[in-house]
Amino acid sequence: MAGRAWRLASLWFALFSIAIALVVVSKALFIGWGIGIQAIDFVGISGHTMLASAIFPTAAYLALHRHSLRLRIAAAGGACLLGLAVAISRVVLNAHSASEVIAGVALGFLVCISFIVLSRRLQGPHLSGAILLLAFGLLFAGLYGERLPTQNWIKNVALTLAGRERPFIREVWHRNAGQN
């Protein structure tokens, strides 16, 4: 059982790490070098949206691992609505453009779907759904109110690598594009 659990955890870690790296690189490219897509107002993949779109459906799928595949996939599909709710909130709060949250949703769902497809070959461990839900509950309770300064970390690394003192800013980027 322990070997199967480690294989599942390793698979999740690999897929999730690739997605995190894509989010970080997309944001750093804009912050440090002004690389984005002005036509669709894209300056980086929405990390919050990617996280929600990857984690919630995967957690639902894993929590019901003793049930039929059909029920597990239905639960994951239902949990996708949480990812979409986060995406909508990011646009409503003006934290991201529609293109950035669409990219976040697509990447998060890709992580989840890839995990589901690839993990079926591994025949995962027999964990209690209640234990998984408790673990996620404790994780979220522990993070409640805490804010990691990830955006500052990305900004500092991007500026250092680009040799710049100031980051590119969306509003200035658009204003300068209108002058060209």
UniProtKB/TrEMBL annotation:
Ranges where the Phosphatidic acid phosphatase type 2/haloperoxidase domain occurs: 45-118
Gene3D superfamilies with a match to the protein in the record: Phosphatidic acid phosphatase type 2/haloperoxidase
Entry keyword Transport: no
Residue spans crossing the bilayer: 12-36, 42-64, 71-89, 101-119, 126-145
Keywords tagged on the record: Membrane, Transmembrane, Transmembrane helix
UniProt cross-references to Pfam families, sorted A to Z: PAP2
Database matches in InterPro entries: PAP2/HPO, PAP2/HPO_sf
Name assigned to this protein: Membrane-associated phospholipid phosphatase
